[in-house]
Task: inverse folding
């Protein structure tokens, strides 16, 4: 038997693994930067560069692509990529396949010598793979080969999708009943206190939550704080930057809600800056609170220990105090009403008065800790 030549076999079955991009990073119809071999060659409009690319260092374009890629560990993301014939988990290949288009900003990729407008590209965004992204279900697909799926840039670890409803984009996210309850409850309390927060609604008796795109189809651009600090958990430097930008009050409102509702999942991809045509215009509203009441709602032991107060004391209280945040006065009868009203959309939880009582006590205990 002849000796097997592995090199011949590899060469026979290998495919072209060149995922590089040559062209322009665009903002609407403006050429922002020239890109060659997926490297920034020249900035053409400094004020319109994404924050992570502003220093123009080597690798910043690819780093920007990586901030926009779907979490490849999400089970249903594999189904989405399979439907789009994306064979690998290479971030740049995945994002380039979608022209790097995101629902929440106006950036996109244009190949060299390509004659196409931003509107033409934006109009190709399709929600036809939303059931695949949410359920892994390939049966309900209305998606053509020329369509662009926003799911490839839909980041985060939970199964989710974008859905176009009456001309507006909505995020639909799947979680446990208690995670979805926490998402909606936190938003309801924040809104009742007059804070800027994204409103969430329960779908299918709480199996899903839905919210409207807070950029209103990219009227403004969302920049996650990760783009500034390049660290997933770097909150301290983020606070300093936000203070310099003049949006500290809005961030402290978010921090207060995290403390009140025991949210241990505030990271640099779920808060950030809003820009319009390159200029900062404010902080993004409070969103992504499905891990509020964290752990306590899924662990019977923790439900009885009120561990959340020590987390609030050690992590959030020092930030609030260092910036002399004025703790809002809270009507706790109103909080009870909000807990009860939120639970109504969750058939099982609405009948569990012990659960509602635990939720109320967590919030009350954390508030008492904050005003000590």
Result:
């Amino acid at each position: 038997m002849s000796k097997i030549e592995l090199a011949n076999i590899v060469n026979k079955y290998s495919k072209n693994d060149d995922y590089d991009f040559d062209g322009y990073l665009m903002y609407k119809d403006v050429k922002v930067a020239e890109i060659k071999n997926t490297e920034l060659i020249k900035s053409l409009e400094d004020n319109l560069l994404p924050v992570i690319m502003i220093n123009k260092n080597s690798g910043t374009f690819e780093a920007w692509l990586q901030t926009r890629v779907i979490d490849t560990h999400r089970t249903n993301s594999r189904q989405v990529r399979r439907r789009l014939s994306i064979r690998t988990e290479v971030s740049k290949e995945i994002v380039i396949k979608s022209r790097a288009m995101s629902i929440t900003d106006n950036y996109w990729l244009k190949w060299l010598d390509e004659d196409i407008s931003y509107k033409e590209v934006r109009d190709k965004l399709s929600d036809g793979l939303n059931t695949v992204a949410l359920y892994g279900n390939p049966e309900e697909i209305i998606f053509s080969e020329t369509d662009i799926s926003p799911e490839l840039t839909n980041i985060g670890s939970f199964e989710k999708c974008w859905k176009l409803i009456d001309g507006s984009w909505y995020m639909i996210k799947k979680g446990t009943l208690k995670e979805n309850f926490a998402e909606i409850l936190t938003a309801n309390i924040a809104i009742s206190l007059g804070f800027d927060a994204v409103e969430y609604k329960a779908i299918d008796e709480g199996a899903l939550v839905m919210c409207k795109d807070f950029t209103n189809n990219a009227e403004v651009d969302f920049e996650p704080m990760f783009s500034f600090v390049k660290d997933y958990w770097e909150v301290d430097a983020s606070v300093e930057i936000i203070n310099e930008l003049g949006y500290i009050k809005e961030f402290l409102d978010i921090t207060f809600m995290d403390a009140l509702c025991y949210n241990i999942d505030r990271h640099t991809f779920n808060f950030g800056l809003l820009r319009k045509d390159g200029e900062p215009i404010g902080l993004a509203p409070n969103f992504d609170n499905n891990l509020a009441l964290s752990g306590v709602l899924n662990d019977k032991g923790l439900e009885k220990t009120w561990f959340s107060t020590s987390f609030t004391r050690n992590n959030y209280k020092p930030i609030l105090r260092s910036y002399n945040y004025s703790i809002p006065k809270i009507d706790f009868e109103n909080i009870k009403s909000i807990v009860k009203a939120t639970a109504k959309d969750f058939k099982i939880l609405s009948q569990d008065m012990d659960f509602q009582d635990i939720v109320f006590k967590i919030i009350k205990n954390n508030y008492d800790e904050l005003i000590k």
